[in-house]
Design a protein that fits this description.
Its main location: membrane. Keywords: Membrane, Transmembrane, Transmembrane helix. It is found in: Membrane. Helix content is about 75%, strand content about 0%. It is mostly helical and about 270 residues long. It has a single domain, classed as Growth Hormone, Chain: A. Helix 4 runs antiparallel to helix 5 and helix 7 packs antiparallel against helix 8. The two termini are about 35 Å apart.
Length: about 270
């Protein structure tokens, strides 16, 4: 539920950004966004309740980052998160340009159509949370592989079919399935036994997504420029990343019977 707020912004931002650009020009749009950010910062600073910090014993707080860095499972999930977010960042960051240049849409329609993945992403996150707690509990790997597989297939369809209705359906399915996979990834560390290292675990895993945010848009831009503005190379790049994500995810052990210190449980300090 909490993570579903991210795609809500993807719904509102493209549509409102396009409308504000038409009404206020791009400078006015930037001023409006800046003022909104200041208002949200004030609400964040003044509106959140203070939470008492729990007291932890010396035994459980000793070298949590070191334990995490020695866990093969954490690094596998980090790699999966990287590949998954290469898909998310690459697809979402270049989707407006793709609609604008390849399908010849005007700026207003680009903003409206680019908000469709946000709606699909909200549904994907909520559905992913429900499935991870229900049908795919202890089988998150299956959910992850299936979700990324659907995204990869849709990318292949978009690469070979240029009809706008088909493209719009595929982009909605991609956003839905990628956010489904995103929830599946983050449900894995929640099942770790070493809850005292949860902060370090989240930091290492999230490093993969942040690195993807740097690499993916730049790689997409380079491939598009190198191919004379064509998106074929960029789509192939995303498809390969999807296959890599699936391959690494297949090496994870997701069921409760096979979890051990070598798979999804970080070794506790002695």
């Amino acid at each position: 539920m909490l993570l579903a707020s991210n795609p809500v912004a993807l719904v509102l931002a493209p549509a409102l950004g396009a409308l504000m650009t038409v009404w206020l020009n791009w400078r006015g749009m930037f001023v409006a966004v800046a003022l909104t950010g200041l208002a949200v910062s004030l609400l964040y600073a003044c509106g959140l309740p203070k939470v008492a910090t729990p007291v932890r014993s010396e035994r459980v707080t000793r070298d949590p980052l070191r334990r995490v860095l020695r866990s093969a499972a954490v690094w596998k999930i980090c790699a999966v998160n990287f590949a998954l977010n290469v898909l998310i960042w690459g697809f979402l960051s270049w989707l407006p340009t793709y609609l604008l240049k390849v399908h010849g849409l005007d700026l207003l329609h680009v903003g409206l159509y680019a908000s469709v993945p946000g709606v699909a992403g909200i549904l994907g996150m909520l559905t992913g949370g429900w499935l991870a707690d229900g049908w795919f509990a202890q089988r998150e790997k299956v959910l992850l592989v299936g979700a990324v597989g659907v995204s990869t297939v849709c990318l292949i369809v978009m690469l070979n079919v240029s009809l706008l209705p088909v493209v719009l359906i595929c982009q909605a399915l991609i956003a839905f399935s990628l956010k489904l996979g995103f929830i599946a990834v983050w449900s894995l560390p929640l099942k770790f036994d070493d809850t005292d290292a949860s902060g370090s675990t989240a930091g290492v895993i999230n490093m993969g997504s942040q690195f993807a945010g740097v690499v993916s848009p730049a790689a997409m831009g380079f491939l598009i420029a190198a191919n004379g503005g064509q998106f074929t190379g960029a789509f192939l790049f995303l498809i390969v990343c999807g296959l890599i994500c699936i391959s690494i995810a297949m090496t994870l052990r997701g069921d409760s019977e096979t979890r051990s210190a070598e798979d999804l449980v970080i070794e506790q300090p002695r």
